[in-house]
Specification:
This protein has a domain at about 10-145: Alpha-Beta Barrel (TIM Barrel). The chain contains seven helices and nine strands; from the N terminus they run βαβαβαβαβαβαβββα. By secondary structure, the chain is α/β, with parallel strands linked by helices. Strands 1-2-3-4-5-6-7 form a seven-stranded parallel beta sheet. The protein is globular and about 40 Å long. The mean pLDDT is about 90.
């Protein structure tokens, strides 16, 4: 359904929580996905060799790294896989100071709201206007991916504030954790298509 609605990326979760899949189940889920849609794997505590096994099995295009996104960890994963690497930056009141260096090191950076409860998928957002100027000053050619509490009702506001290259939604289009609501998916797509970017 995501592909039919025009999604450029589809993700599968290997980082714990109610949406986590085994590599084998993720392969089944993605089996009929057109190759024009890029496959994202969301990882947390796995080492580079574990990530490589999953990337190779499922033919992932992107590795989304939750947890400690250090220069060393990014280098280890980059040496192990042939996929883009998107470290996750967890935002509170402002951007963490390592954000600029991560933008330089990685193939894209994902901004998500900090929550003490979980690494992601919490439905919590951060103040987009509060980081807009700072993000504008450090962003370059690498894509900025925005996550954290996005849903059909607010994604237009988020796009207007931060002009992300990609918006990442999970809980905002679900009936229950891991169960997507096709009407909310459609509404989200429509809201993205009609969003305007502030200048």
């Amino acid at each position: 359904m995501a592909a039919a609605l025009g999604a450029a990326y589809v993700g599968v979760i290997f980082a714990g929580g109610p949406r986590e899949l085994t590599a084998e189940r993720a392969k089944e889920v993605l089996a009929d996905l057109p190759r024009s849609v890029r496959r994202v794997g969301v990882f947390a505590g796995q080492d580079a060799s574990q990530i490589r096994r999953v990337v190779d099995l499922i033919r992932l295009d992107v590795v989304q790294l939750h947890g400690e996104a250090t220069e060393v960890r990014i280098a280890q994963v980059r040496a192990a896989v042939r996929a883009d690497i998107w470290p996750v930056v967890r935002v509170t009141e402002g951007l963490p100071r390592q954000t600029a260096s991560l933008i330089d090191l990685a193939d894209g950076v994902l901004l998500d709201a900090f929550s003490p409860k979980a690494l992601g998928g919490t439905g919590v957002s951060f103040s987009w206007p509060a980081v807009a100027d700072e993000l504008h000053s450090i962003r370059g050619e690498k894509p900025i991916i925005l996550a954290g509490g996005l849903r059909p009702e607010n994604v237009g506001e988020a796009i207007s504030a931060l002009a992300p290259d990609v918006v990442d939604v999970s809980s905002g289009v679900e009936r229950a954790p891991g169960i997507k609501d096709h009407e909310r998916m459609r509404a989200f797509r429509d809201a993205v298509m009609h969003a305007s970017i502030s200048t």
